[in-house]
Specification:
Length: 247
């Protein structure tokens, strides 16, 4: 099992991409990792619930570890919207599996934020904290059920606990810009993780440009693993992301 990296320094670059290993088969997952792990600008991989259910989380991590030592982020679709008691249990299991980061959506309230984010840090796992999805009818203003200010409230509490990584949907650069401004007011050089790139309508150039003074990482699934050439697709996205190094 690989030792987890520092929760403050999860990725070796300030800008890059994180392929989402949402392939329907293990062969597809491994094919994506093999094709992209050495591409400059790929900073880590995201595995999801389907892969963990197929293999078990520990086996999924150890299988990918045979190919790469890049950070592995686990997305439980979406952990954190649960009673606070589950934070410690969930983080302990994740730590034992060897993941480096956990995507957390602690929508269950302030005590859930404290428990899930705090427990991840306790077990030396970087919490990647979110609460919004890149779909139109997710928040109240779009016809959904989650109040629009929830993400900002979750971020504010998470920062006080020690979180450094924040998930902001990239379907519209305006949302990235708004949250990046708020985050920079509260901390130096926040790291923003941006899903919604590619198939869901967002693009790297607009979203990264909307977050000056932030580290920025795009999460990309189908745009990479669904491409005719996985390596070429990853390189194209990486080239776009790497233009922002030093910004």
């Amino acid at each position: 099992m690989q030792d987890n990296q520092s929760t403050d320094n999860l990725f070796r670059l300030t800008h890059g991409i994180i392929p989402a290993l949402d392939n329907s088969t293990l062969d597809g997952v491994l094919k994506t990792v093999e094709a992209t792990a050495a591409v400059e600008g790929v900073v880590g991989f995201k595995i999801g619930l389907t892969t963990a259910l197929q293999l078990g989380l520990s086996k999924a991590v150890s299988t990918i570890r045979e190919i790469t030592d890049l950070p592995i982020i686990y997305d439980h679709q979406k952990a954190g919207a649960d009673i606070p008691d589950m934070g410690e249990k969930f983080s302990k299991i994740a730590a034992e599996s060897g993941v480096n980061g956990l995507i957390l959506f602690p929508l269950a309230g302030p005590s859930a934020v404290t428990s899930f984010v705090g427990s991840a840090i306790k077990y030396n796992i970087a919490p990647l904290v979110g609460g919004d999805l890149p779909i139109e009818d997710y928040t109240k203003s779009g016809g959904g059920y989650v109040v629009d200010e929830a993400l900002g409230d979750i971020f504010a509490r998470s920062i006080g606990i020690g979180a450094k990584y924040f998930i902001v949907p990239g379907k519209t650069p305006e949302k990235v810009r708004s949250h990046s401004i708020n985050l920079r007011e509260k901390m130096e050089k926040p790291s923003i993780i941006i899903p919604g790139i590619g198939a869901l309508g967002g693009n790297i150039s607009d979203c990264f440009a909307a977050a000056p003074g932030c580290n920025a990482y795009a999460v990309i699934g189908r745009g990479i693993y669904g491409a005719d050439s996985i390596a070429d697709a990853a390189k194209k996205f990486c080239d776009e992301a790497l233009q922002f190094l030093g910004s």
